[in-house]
């Protein structure tokens, strides 16, 4: 029986690192962030809807979407963020389901859906189990400021645009604590996947 695992976390929680570890173990992984970039490529349906909604000022000279500009618009405006999500999320969901079905029909025993907003977007029905990558708020803030070269104010604005990690704990089937070292992280993943009979 194949199992579909929903992997989630928060901004700068280390979810990408966990994804990389899972992929290196040979597991099939579908990344919602990569798909979200693909569905807004020039000419795609979602691309046209974004230009229609937000105007040509969100385009770069090569006509691709200026993600930084669009990000700064939606991070500070709840209404505009909702509008963007209504365009992008259905397109991403459709493509993820298609890829998941393809992996399963090819005989994959485990498929991981890497979805940052798994709980917020109520996508848990797409998966059998949920796995949360957790860090405490101080570590999250510090890592985000360092990673994206942000001021504390900007970093906090981005963190507060998501559901707090401590609230996601009660929603997840399992938690990977990423406050420690890379080795500790790897060990936890191996332990959990062994327990779930995935490896």
Question: What's the structural blueprint in terms of helices and strands?
Answer:
Blueprint: E1 3-8, H1 15-24, E2 28-31, H2 32-38, H3 45-54, H4 67-75, H5 78-105, E3 110-114, E4 129-134, H6 137-148, H7 152-160, H8 165-168, E5 174-177, H9 182-195
Parallel strand pairs: 1-3, 1-4, 2-3, 4-5
Given the helix and strand composition, which structural class is it?
alpha/beta
**Count of all domains:** 1
SSE string, helices as H and strands as E = EHEHHHHEEHHHEH
Number of helical runs? 9
* DSSP strand tally: 5
User: End-to-end span in angstroms?
Assistant: 14 Å
Alpha-carbon Rg, integer: 17 Å
CATH-defined fold name: Rossmann fold
Strand fraction equals: 5-15%
**Strand order of the biggest β-sheet:** 2-3-1-4-5
Uncertain segments are: none
Mean pLDDT: 94
CATH architecture: 3-Layer(aba) Sandwich
Q: How would you name the CATH homologous superfamily? A: P-loop containing nucleotide triphosphate hydrolases
Largest β-sheet summary: 5 strands, parallel
Look at the structure and give the CATH class. Alpha Beta
Give a structural overview.
By secondary structure, the protein is α/β, with parallel strands linked by helices. The chain has a single domain (3-193), classed as Rossmann fold. The chain is 52% helix and 13% strand. The chain has 9 helices and 5 strands, in the order βαβααααββαααβα. The chain has helices at residues 15-24, 32-38, 45-54, 67-75, 78-105, 137-148, 152-160, 165-168, 182-195; strands spanning 3-8, 28-31, 110-114, 129-134, 174-177. The protein has a 5-stranded parallel beta sheet with strand order 2-3-1-4-5, sandwiched between helices. α6 (137-148) packs across α7 (152-160). The longest helix has 28 residues, at 78-105. The two termini are 14 Å apart.
């Amino acid at each position: 029986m194949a199992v579909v695992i929903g992997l989630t976390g928060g901004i700068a929680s280390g979810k990408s690192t966990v994804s990389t570890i899972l992929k290196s173990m040979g597991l099939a992984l579908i990344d919602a962030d990569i798909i979200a970039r693909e569905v807004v490529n020039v000419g795609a349906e979602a691309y046209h809807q974004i230009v229609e909604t937000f105007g040509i000022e969100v385009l770069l000279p090569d006509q691709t979407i200026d993600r930084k500009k669009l990000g700064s618009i939606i991070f500070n405006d709840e209404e505009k963020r909702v509008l963007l999500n209504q365009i992008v999320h259905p397109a991403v969901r459709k493509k993820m389901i298609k890829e998941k079905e393809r992996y399963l029909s090819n005989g994959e025993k485990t498929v991981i859906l890497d979805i940052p907003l798994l709980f917020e977007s109520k996508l848990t029905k797409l998966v059998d189990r949920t796995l949360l990558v957790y860090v405490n708020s101080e570590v999250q803030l510090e890592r985000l400021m360092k990673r994206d070269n942000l001021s504390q104010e900007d970093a906090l604005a981005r963190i507060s645009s998501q559901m707090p990690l401590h609230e996601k704990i009660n929603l997840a089937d399992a938690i990977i604590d990423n406050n420690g070292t890379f080795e500790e992280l790897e060990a936890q993943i191996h332990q959990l996947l062994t327990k779930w009979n995935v490896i």
